Amino acid sequence: MAVVGIFVGTMYGNALLVAEEAEAILAGMGHKATVYEDSDLADWQKYQSDYVLVVTSTTGQGDLPDSIVPLFESIKTTLGYQPETRYGIIALGDSTYANFCGGGKQFDALLQEQSAQRVGEMLMIDASEHPEPESESNPWVENWGTLLK
Ligand SMILES: Cc1cc2nc3c(=O)[nH]c(=O)nc-3n(C[C@H](O)[C@H](O)[C@H](O)COP(=O)(O)O)c2cc1C
User: Fold this and answer.
1) pLDDT digit string (tens) for 11-46?
2) What is the domain count for the chain?
3) Would you tell me how many other CB atoms lie within 10 Å of the CB of residue 3?
4) Which residues form the Flavodoxin-like domain (predicted)?
5) 149: in domain
């Protein structure tokens, strides 16, 4: 059984829906998962010896949604180095925009920079091909859940 904090960045609720389905799937596998919207660094730090799953869309021109920017900025300015953090990442975007999944890519790059350990590959969901993002994310989460110790 693993403990997972699911951190959401959303504008219109798609990423939240994906996160809530992920929470249910992980719970069904015997893990303890909790979704955080408008999270802060204290929430993130609770999972230092556990797992985090970042589920974020992209807005503007490859930007993170406002709901997750404060977390991103405090990780960037306060943590610096977090080699014990194990994370997964689901990025929602739309390939008709120039910076496809730019928000998720920025988050992944920050965690890589800080030596966090990614578990599995980043999932990128293209809204122009998959209007129901959970149809892509649910199978990915089922697999991701098997990688947790
Ligand atoms: C104003 C606006 C800007 C967007 N900019 C991008 C972008 O730069 N890159 C991208 O991949 N997707 C972009 N998208 C697509 C969204 O990320 C995508 O529709 C996503 O599913 C929205 O999820 P959410 O409801 O959780 O915010 C944009 C969407 C809107 C409405």
Assistant:
1) 999 999 999 999 999 999 999 999 999 999 999 999
2) 1
3) 16
4) 4-145
5) no
